[in-house]
Write a structure and sequence with these properties.
The protein is of the alpha/beta class. The protein has a domain of 173 residues: P-loop containing nucleotide triphosphate hydrolases (Rossmann fold). It contains 8 helices and 10 strands. The strands form 2 sheets. The protein has a 6-stranded mixed β-sheet with strand order 6-7-8-3-9-10, with helices on both faces. It has a 4-stranded antiparallel β-sheet with strand order 2-1-4-5, with helices on one face. β7, α6 and β8 form a beta-alpha-beta unit. The radius of gyration is 18 Å and the shape is globular. It starts with a strand and ends in an 18-residue tail after the last helix. The relative contact order is 0.17.
């Protein structure tokens, strides 16, 4: 189980995250929803120790998460990645196996099979020798999804994976998330996009510096909660391809 307790982050005396608490059980796909600047990326980074925290703790299997980072696959926002770095698709995904095979050792057959399978699952094996910067946004996102799969982690943290991707990539992401959930993995996916991806979530954490609501999509996405998070009416943000049943 992943347990976040009273997690808070301050930037030069200004609160970026206000004592957020939640738990996620194995086999759950949880959406982290909120407007731009709500603290979604800050929360993910604070959980991993990438930004300093002012208060709180993050535990995985009753121990500090920092002791289990080899079991965590973290995919940051695409805007935080240097796409000009001269590296191929194959080597991006193979980096997921570096911890296991060592920095100065050649990949063994098992690692190559694992990387090939991950790339094939997301439909990118045919482009394995292409430079990562030559790909479309959706293709780049699928490569990093493949890297997460190749890592064989138990906890997956995705920061805005649906932003700027094509319909094919969106479908691949949703399908793979479902497979990981069925395998008993823990997934926390931040997004401000409104689409059919919401229908696949077990729970939603609605965030704007503080945790406004935590529950099923139907429980969380009410007009009152949405007004608190976004400051605008819910109907202004619903896309036509979102199931109307979600917002009854």
């Amino acid at each position: 189980m992943l347990e976040v307790q009273q997690l808070a982050v301050n930037y030069r005396g200004v609160s970026g995250l206000e004592r957020v608490s939640f738990r996620i059980e194995p086999g759950q796909l949880v959406g982290l929803i909120g407007p731009n600047g709500a603290g979604k990326s800050t929360l993910l980074k604070a959980m991993l120790g990438l930004v300093p925290t002012a208060h709180g703790s993050v535990k995985y299997c009753t121990c500090p998460l920092c002791q289990h980072l080899e079991q965590v696959a973290y995919i940051p926002q695409r805007s935080q990645i240097d796409w000009d770095y001269p590296i191929t698709v194959w080597h991006v995904v193979m980096m997921a196996r570096t911890r296991q095979i060592g920095w100065f050792r050649r990949p063994d057959k098992a690692a190559k099979v694992m990387v090939s399978a991950a790339l094939d699952r997301v439909g990118m094996l045919d482009l394995k020798d292409r430079k990562i910067g030559e790909l479309s946004g959706g293709q780049q996102q699928r490569v990093f999804l493949a890297r997460a799969l190749a890592q064989q982690a138990d906890l997956f943290l995705f920061d805005e994976p649906f932003t700027g991707v094509d319909k094919k990539t969106e479908a691949v992401l949703i399908d793979v998330f479902g497979e990981l959930r069925a395998a008993g993995k823990i997934l926390l996916v931040s997004t401000h996009e409104w689409g059919k991806s919401l229908d696949s979530l077990d729970r939603i954490l609605l965030l704007n510096q503080r945790l406004i609501a935590d529950g099923s999509p139907q429980q969380v996405m009410t007009s009152e909660n949405f007004q608190q998070a976004y400051g605008t009416p819910l109907h202004q943000h619903i896309r036509q391809d979102v199931s109307a049943d979600l917002f009854c």
